[in-house]
Amino acid sequence: MTAHESFLDSWPAEKYAALLDLIPAQYAWLRWLVSALVAIALILAVFGLLFAFTTVTERKLLGRFQNRPGPNRVRILGIRAFGFFQPFADAVKALTKEDIVPAAADKILHFLAPAGAVFFTLLGFAVIPYGRHLTPLDLDAGVLYFFAAGAASELVIFMAGWSGRNKYSLLSAMRALAQLISFELPLLLVVVPVVLAAGTLGTSAIVTAQGGWSLGGLIPHWNVLTPWGLAGFVIFVIAALAETNRCPFDLPEGESEIIAGHLTEYSGFKYALFFMGEYFGIIGLCGLGVTLFLGGWQAPCAFLQFIPSYLWFGLKLVAFILFFIWIRATLLRLRIDQLTRLAWKLLVPLGLVNLGVAAFWMLTASWDGPVLLAVRWLAGLALILIPYVLLGRSLGAGLGPRDYRYAQ
Amino acid sequence: MTPDTLTPGTLTPGTFPPGTFPPDATTVRAVHDDFHGDLLEVSMGPHHPSTHGVFRMNVVLDGEIIVKLQPVFGYLHRNHEKLAENISYLASIPYTDRLDYLASLTNNWAYVIAVEKLASLTVPERGEYVRVIVGELARLINHCCLVGFLLNDLGTSFTPLLYSLRERERMLDLVEELTGSRMMCNYMRFGGVRVDPSPDWLARLKTYLEGDFPKFLAEQDALLTGNEILLARTQGAGILKPDLAINAGITGPMLRASGVDYDIRKVERYSIYDRFDFRVPLGDHGDTYDRYMMRMLEMHESLKILRQALRDIPAGPATDPKAKSRGLRPKPGEAYGRIEAPKGELGFYLISDGSPQPYRYRIRPPSFINLTILEDMCLGQTVADAVITLGSVDIVLGEVDR
Fold first, then answer.
1. DSSP β-ladder status, B192-193 and B188-189
2. How far apart are the first and last CA of chain B?
3. In the predicted model, is pLDDT for residue A363 greater than 90?
4. Which CATH superfamily is domain B80-364 in?
5. Which pairing describes strands B37-44 and B30-33: parallel, antiparallel, or unpaired?
6. Angle at the Cα of A189 (from A185 to A191), degrees rounded to 5?
7. 3-class DSSP state of A219
8. Which phi-psi region, left, alpha or beta, contains residue A99 (left: φ > 0; alpha: ψ -120 to 50)?
9. A129 SS3 class
10. Is there a contact between B64 and A330 if contact means CB atoms under 8 Å apart?
């Protein structure tokens, strides 16, 4: 425990350890089992609720963005709560709806896909450090594990797309595979410098490595506040949007083109499970983004440490999710070839360049003083911005606003 | 329906290995083509989120690329023309509302122009001004809708559409106040209009057109027209060459987006359009972006016309008191009345045999004719492009199917 640790961080951790100590030491396996089950139960409860309220927040916010109130009718016991009980009504609806399995469907895959959608996205939650003492499973290769689990969710979309025997589903499965494979690469590439900087793949060690402040506790040492971290964070966000099938990369579900994509043949609770899996995917990736770039549970300023670490993590996570919603309300959808081009011709090269920038940053770590720091920053930014401008120009070649002539 | 009736030529028993035709209903059916190998045939519509009603296109896909597209329409056929041949001239006016139900005022207008030609009726000055005002208002409403729905097809999860619909709703409030109905206006009469707008109504329309509507257009331009994803998606998508457009009889903003200068308001100068100062925007590429921009620019021009009309509108009767509506029996003869409707040339061709009903009643629907060329615009493009190309054609199935 450090001197600045919040009481709300240390106290529950101590009490929890004391409770576990009640189990006699010779039953170490039981201790392990209880602690694992408690972690699983907590994750399911907290993120289940976060999922529920994310859906309603998304709908409310989209409503506000679109000049309408959003859902506000559901009331429980006469309390309306601005419609925030909506997810419970949705859950009841999803559970009571008929589960339709098309006659031509591959029934086993059709059943397994929604289960897998939730299962594989939940796996990633095990390695995210939610707070100072709150890493459920502090693996040495935590980041690697997270991406391995995430890769399986691509399989799930393909299973769903294939099993329904629906042409739109099949198109969606094709799109999803192309999209997810394309964006997996930049996502991984921008994580590499973080691992390089921290010297470990363990998630809680990566957060610890971002601890500390400069300028009398005002500027945190988060990865995002370096040139490579900033560029990496931007690429990470773009790739994360694509990995979670969010607008402007929501092609697998492009409603106006292929109905509901791989979800076309799903109804009732299976559909709800996909929904849940999707949001768990968003929350998981946002959580990882917070961990890798935004200092995880670290407070932004030294004097703000009295706020418990898990609240900081929660705040950053919620801000991240709200940003995703904002993007959804704003942007248009790309086309599949433009999307893969964006990944391979812009994000992957930039990710590689970013590796070099990160190496430069770490090699010059000994440069002291404001002048040298400014030189470091400018050089780092130039190294990443010049390729960005050049690549971006080639990507958008021939496009632009036009002038129009008028008939006489 | 057997598969071979869907895409003649590509799907015949001969193209399948022995014993595999008809294909097993439990598999996703592929169309075999000697050049492309196995292709996927998808029937998009009549129930599809972006076929704008009950339109259907049978597309044959090579991956995401369209190798064949067959528009199928008629699901909303309501026997409109035959109905009109069995009722009086006057009773057809409300039916014309249901053609292009986003712009019923211009439908009325085209029809009454045809009847006025047939029966040699005249319209008083104020009547013409009122017609121009509501006609241009209908154009604004229509283009607002089009831009919103097109952007929705582009995947904007409703945001721009709802702002477009907000403006449309405000214009519809004015329309409702004048005509009694938001969409089914039934407003024009032979020799004028049904009700004369009050000075108060005209003043409020003027306030709206001076204030909030230009603000909306500026907002739309600032936030969307230069958006990089919009540019990437629409520029080069669904190109229509001018010669093909002329040969196919395309009219309206779609034709002008291909660079052909043809606006019936300028060509025929019907009503009093020769009195207004407005320009006709022309595109150079004929792609979806040009078609989108045509609508945006035309809204600016319509605003100009409306401002001039509201400034110059004279006093006097809005309807010719001598014009006979009820029991109209035009002398035997024929007439073709046409206007520049928001979607293109809307024409009514009438033959009278001297009886109270038209002997022949034929509509030239712009969105139907503009739609026939869809395959040429979509071949070689992706499904996503086909959807936005269809969106930029601007169809209303009430008019396509009649």
1. antiparallel
2. 24
3. no
4. Cytochrome-c3 Hydrogenase, chain B (1.10.645.10)
5. antiparallel
6. 120
7. strand
8. beta
9. coil
10. no
Q: Whose CA is closest to B345, among B106, B129, B76?
A: B106
The verdict on a CB contact (< 8 Å) between A257 and B50 is yes
- How does strand B280-282 pair with strand A405-407? antiparallel
Which of A65, A341, A404, A406 should we substitute to test contact with B (largest number of B Cβ atoms within 10 Å)? A404
B316-334 tens-digit pLDDT: 888 888 877 888 888 898 9
Instruction: Give the per-residue pLDDT at B4.
Output: 42
Tell me which DSSP letter residue B365 carries: -
Q: Where are the domains of chain B?
A: 3-72, 80-364
Task: Assess contact for B83 and B96: CB atoms under 8 A.
Answer: no
Secondary structure element (H or E) that encloses residue B307, with its range = helix B288-312
Give residue-wise pLDDT tens across range A188-203. 899 999 998 888 888 8
Residue with tokens 């049978």: B58
Q: Which residue bears the tokens 């590509």?
A: B10
Residue B108: CA atoms inside 13 Å, Cβ hemisphere, count? 29
Q: What angle is formed at CA B212 by the lines to CA B208 and CA B217, rounded to 5 degrees?
A: 120
Q: Which residues of B touch A332 (CB under 8 A)?
A: 151, 154-156, 227, 229-230, 233
Segment B339-350, tens digit of pLDDT: 999 999 999 999
* B46 — pLDDT class (breaks 50, 70, 90): confident
Which one is predicted more confidently, A78 or A47?
A47
Please check whether residue B387 is in contact with residue B248, taking contact to mean a CB–CB distance below 8 angstroms: no
Q: Which of A179-183, B71-75, B104-108 has the highest mean pLDDT?
A: B104-108
Asked if B251 and B112 count as a contact pair (C-beta separation under 8 A), the reply is no
At residue B141, the pLDDT reads: 93
- Count of positions (residues) in chain A: 408
Give the HSE-up count for residue B17: Cα atoms under 13 Å, Cβ half-sphere.
3
Q: Beta strand A219-220 with A213-214: parallel, antiparallel or unpaired?
A: antiparallel
Query: Are the C-beta atoms of residues B209 and B344 closer than 8 Å to each other?
Result: no
A249 CA: distance to closest CA in chain B (Å): 10
